[in-house]
Amino acid sequence: MTQSRSPLAKIGKGLQILLLLAYAVFALFPLLWMFIMSIKPDSQMLTTTFIFTPTLENYATVLHSDYMQFFFNNLIVSVAAVLVSLVVGVPAAYALARFQFKGKEDIAFTILSFRFAPEILVILPLYLIYQRLGLYDTYFGLIWVYQLITLPLLIWILRGFFEDISPDIEAAAQLDGYTWWQVFLRVLLPLVKPGLVAAGLLCFIFAWNSFTFPLLLSNNVQTSTVIALRYLASDTVHYGQVAAAAAISALPEVILALLIQKHLVRGLSFGAVKG
Amino acid sequence: MASIQLSGLTKFYGKRRGVEDVSLEVGDQEFLTVFGPAGAGKTTTLNLIAGIVTPDRGSIRIGDKTVDALEPADRNVAMVFESYALYPQFTVYQNMAFPLRSPKHRLPAAEVEQRVRHFAAMLKIDHLLDRQIQALSNGQRQRTALGRALVRRPDVFLMDEPLSHLDAKLRHSMRAELKEMRSQLGTTTIYVTHDYLEAMSLGDRVAVINQGRILQVGTPEEVYFRPATVEVAQLFGDPEINLIVAKIRNRQSTSVRVQALGEDWSFPITPEIGSALDKLPGDSVQLGFRPADVTVGVNGNSSLHGVVYSFEPLGTKSVLTIDSVAGQRVRALVDGHRTFQVDRRIEFSVPSAALIFFDPESTRYLVRSTRTEGGD
Amino acid sequence: MAELILKTLTKVYSQAQSPAVDQLNLGVRDGEFIALLGPSGCGKSTTLRMVAGLESVTSGEIRIGNKLVNDLHPKDRGVGLAFENYALYPPLKVRDNLAFNLRAHGLGAKEINRRVDEIARTLQIQELLDLKPAVLSSGQKQRVNMARAMVRRPSVLLLDEPLSHLDARLRVELRTEIKRLHAEQRFTTIIVTHDQLEAMALADRIAVMNEGKLQQFDTPLEVFNHPANEFVAGFLGEPPMNIFRTVVADSGRLVIPDTDFALPITPAIQKLVGPRKELKLGIRPWGIRVSQTQTDAAVPGVVVVVEDLGDETRVGVRYGEVLIMSSIPITRRYRPGLPVFLNFNEEDLNLFDPTTGERLSDGSYQANQTAPETVSKNEIQAPVSR
Q1: A187 touches B: beta carbon within 8 Å
Q2: Which residue of A has its CA nearest to B152?
Q3: CA nearest to B316 within chain C
């Protein structure tokens, strides 16, 4: 019986692989295109065939400019934003998952609603306030405003994870002789680790890719996403350099994602359903 | 080792009553079962003692100190949760060793190892010590949870329905094993259950609780044979106790004639029953009798008559539901070898010794014949 | 009403897994009440769903009233199914819930009303007819659910765990009602359940299933008293049967090695044991009599557990890893530590092969694994008019 079905099954399997391949090409093509552009000389930029003389010149130009300075700026504000979000968001998510208090759902919804409005909507008042407070063009100012992006995400993903842990487990650990803080560190945190990793990475990506806020709220403390604009000079557009800058910029995300892929898949499939 | 004293414990969750005015004393090394249906307030009681929930009113003493102001960790109680509450990221060994590595109960590593192995062997999970929790069956998880509580040697054990998630077969054998183990531990224990067999089998005494209030505290024999109220009587036994209202027709010194189930019948009474009946304001009394006590006759001298409404064989025993003359149904538990056809006329009787008398107004226990439960 | 025949019925979900239902043969007589009993995942619900037409058949036949229904649409099979989770239509009143599929079958309003009223009377839900499902208790919902399955007068009534969501008291009550209802109406009925008491109480015959395969198909008492294999023996009965491994010793006794357990092998047992050196012994707690007098046939031991349970006392004696529980009339005589003697009632002994788990049989008893055409003519309980 198992033999009779096998040719059909094989065809099915082959078709499946083919479809997945097609999708992979479709999804990855922009990335591939970007990479190809980054190693094309300016003169051959607009050819649509794949025949060109590969060059590293674009990378050299970008790396020799002050681009790396802005790259590190981005790294500083994004990592710091994620860290602040973790410090604030983990307790907040725990509280929203565990405690019953007045207005709990309203608070949770308000936090989520920060993600509803497009950034451009609030940027003008923010700009004015930042000017007044002297937060304009500071690391701290950017890290702070990034919380609008990262905090809701983190809280909502982690809340689902905390809700998944039975309160009995906490009570059990307390009866086993641990203080609440020890319970939190030794029992709860390890249990939400996949969620923590996934949420942290997502926050990092969103913060890293943020464009509107750094564009309008800072000048010298600029991030790599915004600085890529400079290659769109008034006279020409250096597509090759834009592509090279973008490729460098995408590198940390790709490396991070590959490193913690396992956690990411578990964390997202978990939290997404629950959240 | 310690006694426990609860006085006037009250806890409301918003408007919903968890428990109200619960007072209980549990002696040193006593095994008390707290029995009641779902939502009766059993788990709330345990959580209050453990300190997981704080009471609105009332006080708890463990040993000779009041623990109301103490954190759960400082009360030296160990609890087995209904959900087991095992730490999923740890192995069986790590779960069991966890309390012994805590700041409160820390022991040298060698002694931790020795204790965990000792209790793992006792619970027959010594071959599973390196397993992850996810890889365990329900029964094995239950044993691990028990083991985690046992290693501590606490003052008090609190057990919240530890057997309820096991299948029926395992439940029976675990119950027997738990009872066997009890004698080796000798720790004061409060055991919560909704299964009357567990309550009776394990408890030195049983506290019957419903809707947040304690209905009766007594030995298993007391709550089964002399239930404080009709409600308690209904909670013990499967199928449920039969309850009928009898009108007293004629009361003599050694017997009484009643009308019940649509028929006149009489039965002998003791002086004790007689005086209890005399104190009743009206002429009716509520009678309870267990299905197992009903004798279904064939010899023609039984006092009651009926028609078989339904017959359900259960193996060793069968449940016979009888439509009495008055229409009220009576359940009888008969030997598994007998069969009865639906709609057949039959006779049955209830031995007077099996009758439990209740006040029809207050539904409180009045009296029953002094036959010692169980003959010898 | 009709008879139902399942012939080598098989359901395979995926080639990688073993079949959910494997070559199932069952013959259900007209008016008979059958229970499909087994643990979760044994294939009982899949079987029911195949009969109802909610699940396709991989191979084999389903015949209702001698008509092959494998490929018929569920509504054309003449089956009524009461779902485990009630599945009542929330916006409709009880009356409309009951009338729903009668309307679908194009019956006249008068006839529909007549039938709804009739079934409501049978199930004692007349006063619920104008209520919405949301306000009903779980017991009432289950009655409505069953009424809906019965109102179209199906040839076969299918009940999927009808009592599993009810509390204990209601379960016993409704169990009696279902039994009574069947005695009156005599629908051909299949109930799926994991509760052995429910199956025993309700069914004329029980089909015990495990891992997709039929283990035994017989009357409740036959399944209970003569289980075909170790699985059936362990699955039925509460408290469970004592089942343990014994070795045939040179002394002519069955022993549990390194313990005091030694049971003399009588000629009748010897016939079953044959040349085996090891076998599994099964005995229900009621088959053991506890006494304090020594006889040659009695097995000595020491009481380790005593449970006083009101109507009965259970006494446990330990032999190494094995705890043997006996159930005796209530007594205060026994306490842990007391030496006693266990007398095993020979009629209640069950012997199983230690490797296959099959019941050892001398041929006088045959497990009733009948092909559907040769259903034995067991007497069915019929109602006798008053």
Answers
A1: yes
A2: A176
A3: C286
Interchain proximity A176–B148, CB inside 8 Å: yes
CA dist., res. B155 & res. C114, Å (int): 68
Chain B residues whose CB is inside 8 A of the C177 CB are 310
pTM of the model: 0.85
Neighbours of chain C (3+ CB pairs under 8 A): B
Q: What is the 3-state secondary structure (H, E, C) of C251-311?
A: CCEEECCCCCCEEECCHHHHHHHCCCCEEEEEECHHHEEEECCCCCCCEEEEEEEEEECCC
Q: Looking at the DSSP assignment, which residues form a beta bridge with residue C244?
A: C281
A8: in domain = no
Q: Which position has the token pair 């055409």? A: C373
Q: State the best of C42, C176, C223, C312 to mutate against chain B, taking most chain B CBs within 10 Å.
A: C176
Tokens encoding C309: 């349970």
- Under a CB-based contact definition with an 8 Å cutoff, are residues C239 and C197 in contact? no
A265 is a domain residue: yes
Closest CA to B243 of B251, B252, B233, B253: B233
Structural contact between residues C281 and C349, judged by C-beta atoms closer than 8 angstroms: yes
Contact (CB<8Å) A179/B148: no
The answer to whether residue A24 is domain-embedded is: no
Q: Does residue B98 belong to the interface with chain A, where contact is any CB pair within 8 Å?
A: yes
Interatomic CA distance for residues B282 and B274, integer angstroms = 14
* Neighbour tally for C21: CB within 10 Å: 27
Cα distance from B83 to chain A (closest Cα, Å)? 7
CB B71 to CB A178 under 8 A? no
**Residue A170's CATH number:** 1.10.3720.10
Per-residue pLDDT of chain A (275 residues; tens, 9 = 90+): 444 456 777 888 899 999 999 999 999 898 888 888 888 887 787 777 777 888 888 898 888 888 888 899 999 999 999 999 999 999 999 999 998 888 889 998 988 888 887 888 888 999 999 999 999 999 999 999 999 999 999 999 999 899 988 899 999 999 998 988 999 999 999 889 888 988 998 899 899 988 889 888 888 888 888 887 777 766 777 888 888 888 888 888 888 888 877 777 766 665 443 33
Q: Is any Cβ of chain A less than 8 angstroms from the Cβ of B124? A: no
* B12 inside 8 A of chain A by CB: no
| B50: chain A residues, CB-CB within 8 Å | 171, 175
The contacts of residue C206 (CB under 8 Å, 6+ apart) are C34, C35, C37, C199, C200, C216, C217, C218, C219, C220, C223
Cβ neighbours around B375 below 10 Å, total: 10
Q: Is A17 a domain residue?
A: no
Containing structural domain, residue A154: 65-269
DSSP-based three-state secondary structure for A47:
coil
Complex-level ipTM beyond the 0.90 threshold = no
The residue assigned the tokens 């009481």 is C303
Number of B:C CB contacts under 8 A? 131
Residues of C in contact with B37 (CB under 8 A): 167
> C200 contacts in B (CB within 8 Å)?
312-315
| Alpha-carbon distances, residue B42 vs A186, B2, B10, B60, B206 (angstroms) | 30, 21, 12, 16, 12
Contact state of B81 with A182 under an 8 Å Cβ cutoff:
no
Number of domains in chain A: 1
How far does Cα B32 stand from its chain's mean position? Answer: 10
Asked if residue C234 lies in contact with residue B169, where contact means CB atoms within 8 angstroms, the answer is yes
Surface of A (129-168) touching B: CB under 8 A: 166, 168
H/E run at residue B346: strand B345-349
Report the SS3 class of residue B223: helix
CB contacts of C169 in chain B (<8 Å) are: 234, 240
Give whole-number Cα distances, B145 to B137, B175, B287, C191, in Å: 12, 15, 44, 36
For residue B239, cis peptide bond before it (omega within 30 degrees of 0): yes
